[in-house]
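User: Design a sequence. Structure:
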């Protein structure tokens, strides 16, 4: 299974973006797995951003709560991250993967999608 994060780009502070996570390769049903979004800023470790369980319970990092929203499209087997009121400190490469991350079970992180927020 390969997970692809897409939808990144350059946006001004205060703007919005919607990221999408899709799967290819072997059959993988995101709807029954807890999926997470993560981000890695230049020179920093990869951090948790948001997660959604199979029951659609959501959780967020304190830094994004109230601004970001994670959701899934069950029919399309995708997970989205709606990012509003973006700040320059949100600049990072964003990844999707199983949550919580576990070296034994996480999929390859891939290239992620770059979000750049200009001030």
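Assistant: Done.
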């Amino acid at each position: 299974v390969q997970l692809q994060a897409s939808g990144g780009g350059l946006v001004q502070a205060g703007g919005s973006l919607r990221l999408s996570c899709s799967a290819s390769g072997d059959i993988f049903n995101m709807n029954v797995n807890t999926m997470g979004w993560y981000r890695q800023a230049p020179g920093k470790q990869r951090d948790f951003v948001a997660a959604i369980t199979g029951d659609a319970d959501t959780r967020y990092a304190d830094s994004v709560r109230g601004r970001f929203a994670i959701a899934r499209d069950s029919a399309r087997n995708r997970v989205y991250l709606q990012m509003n009121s973006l700040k320059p400190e949100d600049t990072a490469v964003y990844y999707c993967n199983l949550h919580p991350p576990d070296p034994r079970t996480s999929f390859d992180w891939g290239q992620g999608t770059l979000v750049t927020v200009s001030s």
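The two ends are 37 Å apart (CA to CA). The CA atoms of residues 51 and 59 lie 5 Å apart.
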